[in-house]
Write a structure and sequence with these properties.
DUF4440; alpha+beta; 4 helices; Nuclear transport factor 2 family protein; NTF2-like_dom_sf; single chain; Nuclear Transport Factor 2, Chain: A; six-stranded mixed sheet
Length: about 140
């Protein structure tokens, strides 16, 4: 009886608190995307973004892929650091949603500012690769 209880407990814990392989993959990809922003790796970001991606910034501005990549390329703003405090992922077939919170330190107009940000990202599996199709962030 103890063995059954132990196995059942492990099964429940693994399913409630564990991440699937796809969820772990998406969280790693999202984290990598933030690193690319800080390092201004425009080509890496371009490969991740769907051509029709919509990026809604905390300021309320809505950016297309080209507009956002131009901003990263031109350093408007400069992403000094992005520290993710928490993030979770959910998979729905070929769609993944990431929800997270973090500290974003940027320099804009020669002024460095740190924001507490909450964000959501939507990824779609296309030709065996995850593509970012939507990102929304807001100040906390």
């Amino acid at each position: 009886m103890k063995k059954i209880f132990t196995l059942l407990t492990l099964f429940i814990v693994a399913n409630v608190f564990g991440q699937s392989k796809a969820e772990s993959e998406i969280l790693s990809l999202s984290k990598e995307k933030f690193r690319w922003q800080v390092e201004a790796k425009v080509d890496s970001l371009a490969n991740l973004f769907d051509n029709n991606v919509a990026i809604i910034q905390a300021s309320g501005a809505i950016k297309s892929k080209k507009e956002y990549l131009d901003d990263v390329k031109n350093g408007t703003p400069v992403f000094n650091s992005i520290e993710i405090k928490e993030a979770s992922a959910r998979i729905f077939g070929k769609t993944a949603i990431v929800i997270g919170k973090g500290l974003f330190t940027i320099t804009k107009d020669a002024t460095e500012v740190t924001y507490n940000v909450m964000y959501s990202e939507v990824y779609v599996l296309q030709n065996k690769k995850w593509k970012l199709v939507s990102r929304h962030s807001s100040h906390i």
